[in-house]
Amino acid sequence: MVDVRRVKLPGVGVLHTFVTDDGGKVGVITHRSGHSDLISFSDEDGGSDATKVSLRLDEDEAHTLAELLGGTRITESLSKLDAIPGLTIDWFTVDYDDHIAGQKLGNLASRGVVGLTVVAVVRGESANPAPADDFTVFPGDTLVVAGSPEKVAKAFSFYRTGEVHKTPADPDTGG
Hints:
Strand order of the largest sheet: 1-2-3-4-5
Distance between the termini: 55 Å
Strand content: 25-35%
GO biological process, one term: potassium ion transport
Helix content: 10-25%
Order of helices and strands: EEEEEHHEEEEH
Number of strands: 9
Low-confidence stretches: 72-81, 171-175
Organism: Salinibacterium xinjiangense
Largest sheet: 5 strands, antiparallel
Mean pLDDT: 75
Radius of gyration: 19 Å
GO molecular function, one term: monoatomic cation transmembrane transporter activity
Protein name: Potassium/proton antiporter regulatory subunit, CPA2 family
Pfam families: KhtT_N, TrkA_C
Number of helices: 3
Number of domains: 2
């Protein structure tokens, strides 16, 4: 079995790499936005740029390539290393057309998303831990959030569209 290395890329996603028998490296960067980058490069020091390849794939293209290559053999135990029951820590990278772009972070609880915390906002090379409600979010910022998977999905939906959709499990907040 091939040894796959997994590295979290804060604000970006996850990088999986492995070394081939002939000394090259193959990697996949799975971005939080859903697209993936397939990369291949020489493992030699001073290797030529001509031996480096990068290809951007959308979600459907990445799944198709995985099927063509015979699916994944990464063991599920890798994902279990970071698993804490009921808690998800995820990143949302703000695009220009997202609702939250140019807006104050605000209080998600006042919008019906209770039990979710914005842990930090990453801007460039610096992090703004525990940002206040009046922190202005800009395109390119990455919001690091923690909460249940359902609350994280609900928050990401709000950040994209400006709307919070109630699920059957949500209590009536009276507003």
